[in-house]
Amino acid sequence: MAAPQFNKADLERRMAGAVEALKHDLTGLRTGRASITLLDPVTVEVYGANMPINQVATVSAPEPRLLSVQVWDKSNVGPVDKAIRSAGLGLNPIVDGQTLRLPIPDLTQERRKELAKLVGQYAEKARIAARNVRRDGNDTLKTDEKGGHLSEDERKRHETEVQKLTDATIADIDAAAHAKEKEILGK
């Protein structure tokens, strides 16, 4: 007879992972203020490989509306400039020796609305991930009950705990998405 499979700690870890993934996705959205995480998705083709920008340069935010990228190797300035321009972030670097200055332009109202929609899409993706974890947990509980490891009452009690965990996770997701939308829309 197999051992019981239900593991509440694993479900908590996986749901927390969905929230963290959402928060990571949200940090990459431009809000009109300079943030060094804005360049995290940018990869630069140098030394025959694609590398994250933070492996070929130092990114800093010396002013609220300006990013500074200090490229370590002079020969990589061109590829870094090209990578930032082609990343679809709407940024146009100003090359100053080995430093690239990135003024952060104001967001138009139309672009703010697009970004707010994107926040909603990211949040929905995270909610779906949390619900999938809930489904997996409930399926495991049913399997354990069929295998004789749990009584029906224990299964129902655990399902209630899983639902409470799911509700709390979705509340965290909604709070993070709402805060980001508020930041983007400037309200």
Automatic annotation (TrEMBL):
Domain of life: Bacteria
Protein location: Cytoplasm
GO terms, molecular function: ribosomal large subunit binding
Protein name per the record: Ribosome-recycling factor
Function as written in the Swiss-Prot or TrEMBL entry: Responsible for the release of ribosomes from messenger RNA at the termination of protein biosynthesis. May increase the efficiency of translation by recycling ribosomes from one round of translation to another.
Predominant localisation class: cytoplasm
HAMAP family associated with the record: RRF
